Amino acid sequence: MKLRRCQLELAARAVREDALGEVRRIAGVDVSSSRFDPARMVHAAVVVLDWPSLTPVARAAVSLPAPMPYITGLLAFREIPAIEAALAQLPDPPDLLMVDGQGIAHPRRCGIATHLGVVTDLPSIGVAKSRLVGQPVAPLGEEPGALVEVRDRGDVVGALLRSRARANPLHISPGHRVSLATALHWVRATLRGRRLPEPTRAAHEWAGQARRAAMAPPPGRE
DNA sequence: GCGACAG
DNA sequence: ATCTTGTCGC
């Protein structure tokens, strides 16, 4: 299939250094779906938070039929059409995207955060809850705030961050136009003492609501 | 062939 | 990803 070649081309266009202006609006991005849904829909949600108040200033949700099933390494092709449609509904583009999934910590350095960042040309960060590729260069400490870089085939592609005591670590990786150090800065700045950063949390919640609303039985007649 | 495997 | 309330522990 040529999707993999497409990812190589996108990865070549990804900027791994900081190329972002003042960050005042941070967008959390997430997608919800249900295996039990015969229509095979994907529900994308974007929530824009003001920095530093972390107050929601805009949000959008779009539901579309899934273009393809979930295939490891090809997640972006399933979720990005709905995400782009949701982004298009925002009154203004955000300054930074926080995406639920990997950035460059991907077999072809083109996880969904990188893919989305490049096609929109917006700065992006990948915030994943589990591993796709790479290994930590050392064991991750148990203490909250513990951090360790993740390397894959000789490249530093991200880091594990113990965002909260006794919680599984976050897998942080640069997406587009953001360095690893800056990615970590924005994740830590939006944690609010919880495991997931607020933009991601809010988007996850909003996506879940969008899915339940779309799947809810039609309003009763009579 | 075997093991790994974002959401 | 999703199925799901209360409950145990710091």
From TrEMBL:
Cofactor dependence is on: Mg(2+)
Q: What is its main location?
A: cytoplasm
Give the span(s) annotated as Disordered. 199-222
List the subcellular locations. Cytoplasm
Q: Does Cell cycle count among this protein's keywords?
A: no
Carries keyword Nuclease? yes
User: What functional role does this protein have?
Assistant: DNA repair enzyme involved in the repair of deaminated bases. Selectively cleaves double-stranded DNA at the second phosphodiester bond 3' to a deoxyinosine leaving behind the intact lesion on the nicked DNA.
Read off the NCBIfam families from this record. PRK11617.1
The cross-references to PANTHER family, in alphabetical order and at most eight, read: ENDONUCLEASE V
Q: What is this protein called?
A: Endonuclease V
UniProt lists the gene as: nfi
